[in-house]
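ok new one. same drill as before - C-alpha coordinates go in, u give me an amino acid for every spot. 178 of them this time. try not to just spam alanines like last time pls lmao
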Protein backbone atom coordinates (compact mmCIF):
# COMPACT_ATOMS: atom_id res chain seq x y z
CA UNK A 1 0.00 0.00 0.00
CA UNK A 2 1.23 3.48 -0.88
CA UNK A 3 1.33 5.90 2.04
CA UNK A 4 0.88 9.69 1.96
CA UNK A 5 4.52 10.14 3.00
CA UNK A 6 5.56 7.95 0.05
CA UNK A 7 3.60 10.28 -2.28
CA UNK A 8 5.26 13.32 -0.75
CA UNK A 9 8.74 11.79 -1.22
CA UNK A 10 7.89 10.80 -4.80
CA UNK A 11 6.50 14.27 -5.55
CA UNK A 12 9.62 15.95 -4.13
CA UNK A 13 11.89 13.60 -6.12
CA UNK A 14 10.00 14.30 -9.34
CA UNK A 15 10.07 18.06 -8.66
CA UNK A 16 13.82 17.96 -8.11
CA UNK A 17 14.35 15.95 -11.29
CA UNK A 18 12.20 18.30 -13.37
CA UNK A 19 13.97 21.36 -11.94
CA UNK A 20 17.37 19.83 -12.75
CA UNK A 21 16.29 18.96 -16.27
CA UNK A 22 14.95 22.45 -16.92
CA UNK A 23 18.15 24.00 -15.57
CA UNK A 24 20.27 21.71 -17.74
CA UNK A 25 18.25 22.38 -20.87
CA UNK A 26 18.16 26.12 -20.31
CA UNK A 27 21.97 26.19 -20.14
CA UNK A 28 22.31 24.48 -23.52
CA UNK A 29 22.68 27.02 -26.34
CA UNK A 30 19.69 26.90 -28.61
CA UNK A 31 19.86 26.42 -32.31
CA UNK A 32 17.54 29.38 -32.78
CA UNK A 33 17.10 30.65 -36.27
CA UNK A 34 18.69 33.96 -37.24
CA UNK A 35 15.19 35.45 -37.42
CA UNK A 36 14.59 34.53 -33.75
CA UNK A 37 17.77 36.39 -32.78
CA UNK A 38 16.69 39.35 -34.90
CA UNK A 39 13.27 39.30 -33.20
CA UNK A 40 14.96 39.35 -29.79
CA UNK A 41 17.19 42.25 -30.83
CA UNK A 42 14.16 44.15 -32.14
CA UNK A 43 12.26 43.50 -28.89
CA UNK A 44 15.24 44.76 -26.87
CA UNK A 45 15.50 47.91 -29.02
CA UNK A 46 11.75 48.52 -28.65
CA UNK A 47 12.03 48.00 -24.88
CA UNK A 48 14.86 50.54 -24.66
CA UNK A 49 12.91 53.02 -26.80
CA UNK A 50 9.90 52.61 -24.50
CA UNK A 51 12.04 53.17 -21.38
CA UNK A 52 13.47 56.31 -22.98
CA UNK A 53 9.97 57.55 -23.84
CA UNK A 54 8.82 56.90 -20.27
CA UNK A 55 11.85 58.81 -18.94
CA UNK A 56 10.86 61.75 -21.17
CA UNK A 57 7.30 61.51 -19.83
CA UNK A 58 8.66 61.74 -16.26
CA UNK A 59 10.78 64.74 -17.27
CA UNK A 60 7.67 66.46 -18.65
CA UNK A 61 5.92 65.73 -15.34
CA UNK A 62 8.81 67.21 -13.37
CA UNK A 63 8.99 70.27 -15.65
CA UNK A 64 5.23 70.94 -15.44
CA UNK A 65 5.41 70.66 -11.65
CA UNK A 66 8.41 73.02 -11.40
CA UNK A 67 6.54 75.59 -13.53
CA UNK A 68 3.36 75.14 -11.46
CA UNK A 69 1.45 74.40 -14.67
CA UNK A 70 -1.64 72.28 -14.02
CA UNK A 71 -2.56 72.06 -17.72
CA UNK A 72 0.91 70.83 -18.73
CA UNK A 73 0.84 68.36 -15.83
CA UNK A 74 -2.53 67.04 -17.00
CA UNK A 75 -1.41 66.84 -20.64
CA UNK A 76 0.79 63.81 -19.85
CA UNK A 77 -2.31 61.86 -18.74
CA UNK A 78 -4.99 60.07 -20.74
CA UNK A 79 -8.34 61.85 -21.12
CA UNK A 80 -9.92 59.47 -18.57
CA UNK A 81 -6.98 59.33 -16.12
CA UNK A 82 -7.13 59.20 -12.33
CA UNK A 83 -4.69 60.90 -9.96
CA UNK A 84 -4.77 60.15 -6.24
CA UNK A 85 -2.73 62.74 -4.38
CA UNK A 86 -0.64 62.34 -1.23
CA UNK A 87 -3.52 63.63 0.91
CA UNK A 88 -6.11 61.32 -0.65
CA UNK A 89 -7.56 63.78 -3.14
CA UNK A 90 -8.94 61.99 -6.21
CA UNK A 91 -8.65 63.98 -9.44
CA UNK A 92 -10.59 62.45 -12.35
CA UNK A 93 -10.12 63.11 -16.08
CA UNK A 94 -7.46 65.23 -17.74
CA UNK A 95 -9.54 68.38 -17.17
CA UNK A 96 -10.09 67.51 -13.51
CA UNK A 97 -6.36 66.87 -13.10
CA UNK A 98 -5.54 70.24 -14.72
CA UNK A 99 -7.95 72.11 -12.45
CA UNK A 100 -7.03 70.19 -9.28
CA UNK A 101 -3.29 70.37 -9.78
CA UNK A 102 -3.45 74.08 -10.61
CA UNK A 103 -5.19 74.62 -7.27
CA UNK A 104 -2.48 72.61 -5.49
CA UNK A 105 0.27 74.57 -7.27
CA UNK A 106 -1.35 77.95 -6.57
CA UNK A 107 -2.40 77.38 -2.96
CA UNK A 108 -0.07 74.80 -1.46
CA UNK A 109 2.95 74.01 -3.66
CA UNK A 110 4.23 77.36 -4.92
CA UNK A 111 7.85 77.20 -6.01
CA UNK A 112 8.22 73.47 -5.36
CA UNK A 113 9.68 70.80 -7.57
CA UNK A 114 9.70 67.02 -7.44
CA UNK A 115 12.74 64.79 -7.12
CA UNK A 116 12.80 61.12 -8.04
CA UNK A 117 15.07 58.95 -5.90
CA UNK A 118 14.28 55.46 -7.20
CA UNK A 119 12.27 54.07 -10.08
CA UNK A 120 11.30 50.56 -11.09
CA UNK A 121 9.48 49.92 -14.36
CA UNK A 122 7.91 46.70 -15.54
CA UNK A 123 5.80 45.98 -18.57
CA UNK A 124 2.71 43.89 -17.85
CA UNK A 125 2.00 44.07 -21.61
CA UNK A 126 4.04 45.70 -24.38
CA UNK A 127 1.78 48.77 -24.17
CA UNK A 128 1.25 48.89 -20.38
CA UNK A 129 3.99 50.02 -17.99
CA UNK A 130 3.79 49.92 -14.20
CA UNK A 131 6.20 52.40 -12.67
CA UNK A 132 6.90 52.59 -8.94
CA UNK A 133 8.94 55.56 -7.73
CA UNK A 134 10.12 57.01 -4.47
CA UNK A 135 10.79 60.68 -4.24
CA UNK A 136 9.77 63.91 -2.61
CA UNK A 137 8.61 67.47 -3.04
CA UNK A 138 11.45 69.95 -2.68
CA UNK A 139 10.56 73.35 -1.30
CA UNK A 140 12.43 76.48 -2.45
CA UNK A 141 16.04 76.31 -1.32
CA UNK A 142 16.00 72.55 -0.69
CA UNK A 143 18.23 70.17 -2.64
CA UNK A 144 17.65 66.91 -0.75
CA UNK A 145 14.55 65.07 0.39
CA UNK A 146 13.52 65.35 4.01
CA UNK A 147 12.02 62.35 5.78
CA UNK A 148 8.68 64.19 6.10
CA UNK A 149 8.47 64.76 2.35
CA UNK A 150 9.26 61.20 1.18
CA UNK A 151 6.56 59.41 -0.76
CA UNK A 152 6.10 56.38 -2.96
CA UNK A 153 3.89 56.47 -6.01
CA UNK A 154 2.62 54.10 -8.63
CA UNK A 155 2.06 55.22 -12.21
CA UNK A 156 0.30 53.17 -14.85
CA UNK A 157 1.29 54.29 -18.33
CA UNK A 158 -0.39 53.24 -21.57
CA UNK A 159 1.07 53.35 -25.05
CA UNK A 160 -1.54 54.39 -27.60
CA UNK A 161 -0.78 55.24 -31.21
CA UNK A 162 2.94 55.18 -30.39
CA UNK A 163 2.68 57.65 -27.49
CA UNK A 164 3.00 56.93 -23.76
CA UNK A 165 0.66 58.67 -21.29
CA UNK A 166 -0.17 58.08 -17.64
CA UNK A 167 -3.65 56.72 -16.99
CA UNK A 168 -3.38 56.26 -13.23
CA UNK A 169 -1.21 57.80 -10.53
CA UNK A 170 -1.38 57.08 -6.80
CA UNK A 171 0.87 58.77 -4.27
CA UNK A 172 1.40 57.85 -0.61
CA UNK A 173 3.57 59.55 1.98
CA UNK A 174 6.10 57.18 3.55
CA UNK A 175 5.30 56.85 7.23
CA UNK A 176 7.02 53.86 8.85
CA UNK A 177 5.10 52.16 11.63
CA UNK A 178 6.65 52.77 15.01
Amino acid sequence: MTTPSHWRRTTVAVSVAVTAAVALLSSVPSAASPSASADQAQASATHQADLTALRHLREKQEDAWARGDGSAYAAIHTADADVVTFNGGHLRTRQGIATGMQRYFDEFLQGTRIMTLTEQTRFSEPDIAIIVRTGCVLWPGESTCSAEALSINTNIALKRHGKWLYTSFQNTRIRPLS
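The two ends are 55 Å apart (CA to CA). and btw Residues 1-33 have pLDDT under 50 and may be disordered.
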